[in-house]
């Protein structure tokens, strides 16, 4: 591209990829306004209706590392477009659905679109000029929070239009994303040699399903039930066998030797705990806002009002991304990640004092989101500065998977806490104020644990600059 057109072209690429990240993350919370109504809408019971959420989680967890490897092998833009098409197809399946089966199938297809975020970060490394790379990665990472926050005011659509409109609209967004990526985002010339490891993909998928399914459904099945314990045991056995296979196959789905490098390993472990801390807020604040004021601690907001009170938190993540990128460039991404964990912990401390008003919820959720913005901006940089150029998509997919494991664990732990610590309001059983406080303590403790993990990451002040490859090295990779 010519110098005169480089800046606007680069800006358009970043905008399209960030919009893609917002679109796919929106799918995660799109159904939140409908949760309480799903059993009626789908003519089923509450336990079965929860599969509409679980299916997206499982599909997204599987898609991110698998699609990442496909992107490294066959072209990242190509796999981004395929992911967006699957998202659109899933939305079209959900849109006319009035029963459980098509809704679960459609939501699983929507979950496959989550691969857009790690693939978008990886293609940015390949095609953007060095001076724009740090801020672009930070913006792309923040799209996860922005999309999630925008999904909550979708209650306005569900309340004022037929709920099917949510999915018709998401189908349109998926198709629009396909068109924009094809028109504006060039394909990376950086590819990895080798063949796709089908055996590794099947093994990882089976292991993840058997791990995440009991985490998600353990409270319904019973944590000590034969089904739950059996799935955990089978997951451990399959993942051990998968690791043995990956270490011996000449073209593995995931280079485990690279993944155990201290910088990659500790960043991924931090991602699990940060994902936990992030999702704890997402579970607690909507309930706190919507519980009846008659409880003495609930804030009595409607579904729409609660969504609007929470939406600014996601926008804070986007606003903080340029500052996070600058801090990573000057002080190193480890510093940005450590600061993020400490800000998250301080946000949870504030929550204990501010949880008695809607304005207080807005303030502490914004502080926590600012910390998440710093953390999410730093993690891809730490990962990509420690892996070969030809493995960036797969490495980012694994990092995204680690965050998904953290969010799933938060759902299980906080669900158990809030389901156990309850009070009665007439005939209805509700989470107690002490339950919310314990949940906030757990979220803050997770952030502090993440800070300790971050301290174990090898320090490298100029870590961000290792993302920039010389033209000669790029030519060798592309040849």
Please tell me about this protein's structure.
By secondary structure, the protein is mainly α. It contains 20 helices and two strands. It has a two-stranded antiparallel ribbon with strand order 1-2. The radius of gyration is 21 Å and the shape is globular. Residues 1-8, 461-465 and 468-479 have low confidence and may be disordered.
Compact summary:
With 479 residues, the protein is mainly alpha-helical. Helix content is 77%, strand content 2%.
Please tell me how large the radius of gyration is: 21 Å
Shape from CA axes?
Answer: globular
Q: How many strand elements?
A: 2
Average pLDDT for all residues:
84
Q: Largest beta sheet: what is the strand line-up?
A: 1-2
CATH class of the largest domain: Mainly Alpha
Structural class: mainly alpha
Order of helices and strands: HHHHHHHHHHHHHHHHHHEEHH
Portion in beta strands: under 5%
Which regions contain 5 or more consecutive residues with pLDDT less than 50? 1-8, 461-465, 468-479
Assigned CATH superfamily of the largest domain: MFS general substrate transporter like domains
CATH architecture type of the largest domain: Up-down Bundle
Termini separation (Å)? 20 Å
